[in-house]
Structures are given as structure tokens and as C-alpha cells.
User: What shape does this take?
Amino acid sequence: MSVFLSETDIAKFLGQSLPDTRRAIKSSKLKSISRQGHKVFPRDDVLNWLAENFTSLTSERLMRADHSSADSAGLDPFSCGITQLLSESEVSFPDNASTRSSVLRFVSGKAVERGAVYDAAELREQLEQRETVVSTALKCGAALIHPLDIRQLYVEKELLALIIPPHPIPFGESSGRLTSLFFLLLFPDPHRHVHILARLNRLLRSNDFIENILCAVSHEEALDMVYRRELDVISSGGKI
Assistant: This one.
């Protein structure tokens, strides 16, 4: 995994032209460094910036980021990738996740249980550090949890997991909104990571979807809701 990303790499993530990307970078807080005469950006700074800004993109631009990052990762942007990933893991309904700390403890243990990582404490530390920098909680009531620097972890396999606690909890969303849905993302490939972030942001732009999935009582029921929502997003042409 490269430690640094170029403007061209960022343009591929966003699915837009280099001039448009340069304007977006200029208005951001991303700091570049020079390596071998080229301007580059720390990989994790870029990924964190994208995660924080995807919610403000128009539906069409978010779709372009979804498709472009999928193409760069060698994925089919018209497949139900989120549904497939969740079907390979598990939608969990923990009874004892009532604080940010307990949620991060639970998802770290779940990652070890699923064989994605071997050290739950190491993963939890990276997740805590990411939340300290800027919370992964979104205004819609979901959080897209991921490590601050996944290169510090030994990831045996990719993982996307969904956790639905019995009650919403304070997780750090900037306006103080409580968080009800928690997705854990472990994807060492940055293009794969950005694709999953963009696709999840598209799914979560439906209040009805969020309200319905919060009523799910089983893995199968939640997975069916994700599948139907993902089909709608894929066929929308960027309109939703």
C-alpha cells in the first residue's frame, strides 16, 4: 500500500477531472508534500477527508465516486457489493453496546471472530484514534467506523460488518445527534475502501431505509432490506 497519493489518484477516487480535483483540494485542508518533484498527499489524510466530505456531495457526484473507485479496484459498480459483503459477515444485534467505547470493543471482537484481524486491542486502538481525530458518525444516524491508519494493522481479510444496538447512543456526531447504525469497514485497498464509503453514503440517503432497517430483528431481515435498497441505488442513475 502506497503511503502517499497523487492528485491523479484523488481524481480517480472522485470520478472527476484533474482541474476540478485541484479546485477541491485547494478549498480543503489537505496538506501536500513534495516527493521526487511531484506533489503528493498522505494516504490516510486523503481517505479521512473523503470520508468527511462524501455526505456533502450531490447524488450524481457521489455516484461518480462510487463508480470510479469501483473501476479502479477492478469491481463491477453495478453489482450489489454491500449486500454480498454483509452476507459473508453478520448483522449483529448486541445487547450490551450502549456507549462509544462498548461499540468499538464489540466491533473489534467481531473482527477477530470473523478472522479479519488477530488483535482486537490493536484494532480498537486504531478505531479510537480515528474517532478522536473526527467522528465517523453521520447526520443520518449511522457511523462508518474505520481505522485511522489501517497500515498499522495486519488485516487477514476484508470485512464489512453491520451492528445495530438496542438503543441509539452518543457517538460524537457534530450536532449531537445520536447514532443507531454502525458499519465497520476494514479494506486495505484504498480504492476498495472509497468505493464502499461512497456506496454506503448512497444507501444511507434514504430515511425510510434507515428507519426500516432499525426495525429488523434478524440478519436475514436486515440483509434483505440492504439488498432492496442497493438495487434501488444501482438503478437510480445517480438520482438518489
Notes: The radius of gyration is 17 Å. The mean pLDDT is 92. DSSP finds ten helices and seven strands in the chain. Residues 93 and 164 are 5 Å apart (CA to CA).
